[in-house]
Write a structure and sequence with these properties.
467 residues, alpha/beta, two-stranded antiparallel ribbon, 21 helices, globular
Length: 467
């Protein structure tokens, strides 16, 4: 094989992409130049390219069909670019600065929500859309007060002030806000229970799936479906009570669209698969892949609506990579990766069940029952070493569970390995479908999306952020 052939086949294969000609990667917009009456921005938070690839591989191998996102590429239905994700303070952004770049049109330091390096407070994009008559909202699988939704909504120096963000939302009167984070609104909130105030100010409040499905468009909506983040999809799928009580991201997305789609001036909606990021931080493979697939289901619903509607721009992306997982040296039959279909529980759930008092065999049996593989004795011993510093009787939580060690061990049984446990500075996938997508350049900086969305919706020039 000559050097050119090696580069042509080996490099692209190493990236997890088939070799294609240039004409195959230049997609044509489905619609011509037209105003985007509606905008749906979909964010798989913390999604490295390996996460996108593995979810697609899994979908193809187990379900016999492409993921919805990569299906847009395969069918040449969307426009594709790379996006630079840096913040004002670092090449590696956090979610607050990343969402603020889209929401406020300028880069801010990590940890800040739409407060610039010199104290600037640009008007967040959902406030702009609301001011011009659109219905607006956010749905997410993490607290609705978390960094990514908040970056489209508010100006605050510290993303950690979620109690305050919950109060700020009340004054904004946005139309649909749904996700987790009940503890920042209800009786457990440090500053007092806000839910009665939301009800007094005319909101419908939903606290489970049935209540969400029953919502109508007569009032603005606050949906709170978990105390903190919503359950990982793999855990929800194997818990009948969670299936009954907790909506999926796709269901929340469809409901949000239903509640806003008939508004004469259109709507703007942010949809976040927030627990993709949490799973990546925890090196939690089943948490990661099944939440990415749940996000992908929501993508499919948004595209389905946009195809019928003809006036909706759908933007699909991530705010940054995280931990850069990928398939490494997979066995010839790929049976190890395929075994992911036997996982019934996330690493987070599983590790929280373990106790130092358990025998090796009890741990082996627990893992076999909930993740479908038989862990070797030496790996169990290695895992238990990392529990030794936990005080007997202490509640295990996400701060003291041995995620890194378990993720590393799991690589032996799944062929998936991780580069670390934190955000990365990779350029990321940016995909658009619908009116305005024809204006997407092949390479953009994250803050450029703010004006891009405003221009696609033909918002007033005065709303554009000046360079």
């Amino acid at each position: 094989m000559n050097r050119r052939s090696l580069l042509k086949g080996g490099l692209l294969t190493g990236l997890g992409l088939p070799f294609v000609g240039m004409k195959d990667v230049i997609a044509s917009p489905v619609v011509g130049r037209k105003k985007a009456k509606n905008i749906i921005m979909m964010v798989s938070d913390g999604m490295s390219i390996g996460t996108l690839n593995m979810a697609d591989i899994y979908s193809n191998r187990i379900f016999g069909k492409s993921s919805k996102w990569l299906g847009l590429y395969r069918d040449n239905k969307a426009v594709r670019a790379l996006m630079d994700t840096a913040s004002a303070s670092s090449l590696v952004t956090d979610s607050a600065a990343a969402s603020s770049s889209w929401g406020g049109g300028m880069r801010v330091r990590n940890g800040s929500l739409n407060v610039g390096m010199n104290g600037e407070k640009p008007q967040p994009i959902l406030q702009k859309f609301k001011e011009k008559g659109k219905k607006v909202g956010c749905v997410t699988t993490v607290p609705i007060t978390h960094a990514t939704p908040a970056g489209f909504c508010v100006n605050i120096d510290n993303r950690g002030g979620q109690d305050l963000i919950a109060e700020m939302y009340l004054g904004l009167k946005f139309d649909v806000m749904m996700g987790g984070g009940h503890k920042y609104f209800g009786e457990k909130r440090a500053g007092g229970n806000l839910i009665p105030k939301y009800l007094t100010q005319g909101y419908n409040v939903a606290e489970n799936r049935a209540e969400m499905l029953a919502l109508d468009k007569s009032k603005p909506v606050l949906g709170l479906f978990a105390e903190d983040g919503m359950p990982y999809e793999v855990d929800r799928l194997h818990d009948q009570e969670l299936i009954k009580s907790t909506p999926t991201l796709a269901e929340m997305t469809m409901k949000a669209i239903e509640l806003m789609k008939d508004h004469k001036d259109g709507f703007a909606l942010q949809v976040e698969g927030g627990k993709v990021d949490w799973a990546a931080h925890s090196n939690d493979l089943s948490g990661l892949i099944f939440d990415q697939l749940a996000f992908d289901e929501a993508v499919g619903k948004a595209i389905e609506f946009a195809e019928k509607d003809g006036e909706t721009l759908v933007i699909i992306t991530t705010d940054h990579g995280n931990s850069n997982p990928g398939l490494f040296y997979a066995d010839e039959a790929n049976k190890k990766f395929d075994s992911l279909q036997n996982f019934k529980r996330s690493n987070t759930w599983l590790l929280a069940q373990l106790n130092q008092s358990f025998s090796e065999q009890k741990i082996i049996d627990l893992i076999k029952e909930n993740q479908g593989f038989e862990m070797k004795s030496e790996d169990v011993k290695s895992l238990l070493v990392h529990f030794k510093d936990i005080v007997p009787g202490q509640l295990y939580n996400e701060s003291n569970l041995p995620f890194y060690e378990y993720g590393k061990i799991l690589g032996k049984y799944t062929d998936v390995q991780w580069a670390g446990m934190n955000h990365t500075g990779d350029y990321v996938e940016l995909t658009m479908f619908g009116p305005g997508s024809e204006n997407l350049k092949p390479f953009v900086k994250n803050y450029e999306l703010h004006n891009f969305m405003l221009k696609a919706a033909e918002m007033p020039e005065a709303f554009l952020v000046k360079a």
